[in-house]
Amino acid sequence: MDSCRISDEGMVNLAGPHRLKCLELSDTEVGSSGLRHLSGLFNLESLNLSFTVVTDGGLRKLSGLSSLKSLDLDDHQITDAGLAALTS
After folding, report:
1. Which residue of 44, 51, 61, 70 pairs with 35 in a disulfide if CB–CB is 3.0 to 4.6 A?
2. The whole model's pTM is what?
3. Per-residue pLDDT reduced to its tens digit, 36-47
């Protein structure tokens, strides 16, 4: 979904495909609040959030994604505290 017009409200439609392994959301209007809809994607291995408006608070919503191996956060204002929330 790279560069598409999906926003936080549209993320609810991604809550169902539990077998999803890779999700490309770069250059979209997705922000931190939309990431709550990804919490059930336990098989997700790769997530690209480059050029979105995700913050440290949004990263905390990804902490339960235990299969996540790759997270792309180019062009973000993410702090060390936000990254630490992913491992706790």
Report:
1. 61
2. 0.86
3. 999 889 999 999
